[in-house]
Amino acid sequence: MNRILVGGTLLLVIFVGVFRQRIFLRDPLGKMERNGVAVDGARLYINFLNDVLVEEPGTERRYLVQRWSGVPGVPQILGCVQGLACWTDADHATVFLLDGRGAGARAVMSAKEITFVDETDARIRVQLR
Questions:
Q1: Whole-angstrom Cα distance, residue 64 to residue 2?
Q2: 5 phi/psi in degrees, rounded to 5
Q3: Which of 107, 114, 112, 79 is nearest to 93 (CA)?
Q4: Which of 31, 35, 38, 51 is the most buried (most CB within 10 A)?
Q5: What is the rounded CA–CA span in Å between residue 12 and residue 107?
Q6: DSSP state letter for 70
């Protein structure tokens, strides 16, 4: 029994190590604002590189901002375990670019904050903890 547990744990560690850019874990302390107003219930996920995935409550909106491109988009392929973790199709996930005046504009990213303009031209601010 112990060998199975140790072997399973080792496989999990290897899996997470290899796919660390694709796996996004929930940040329960993170906050989101839309045009300066706090959005209650927003779910924030981050990966090993601090790429950010945002889910807005009550809508189907999901935004993904990756450091390698800096351009916010909607993930084309995304799997999620509700409220716990999500995973993308590749290290550099394929996204649909946002429409609107801010389309194609790079997000401003730091270790603790990301700001960008969504498809409705609203200013989105994400604070990580």
A1: 39
A2: -65, -45
A3: 79
A4: 51
A5: 33
A6: -
Please tell me the distance from the alpha carbon of residue 48 to that of residue 101, in angstroms, as a whole number: 31
Tell me the pLDDT band of 102, cut-offs 50, 70 and 90: low
Domain with 17, as residue range(s), is: 1-127
Residue 101 clears pLDDT 70, i.e. is over it: no
pTM: 0.84
pLDDT one-digit tens code per residue, 10-43: 887 887 776 778 999 999 999 999 999 999 999 9
Half-sphere exposure of 44 (CA within 13 A, CB side): 23
Q: How many residues does the chain have?
A: 129
Helix and strand numbers (H, E) in the chain are 1, 13
CB-CB contact of 11 with 17 (8 Å)? no
Query: Based on the structure, what is the number of domains in the chain?
Result: 1
Q: Which residues contact 18 (CB under 8 A, 6 or more apart)?
A: none
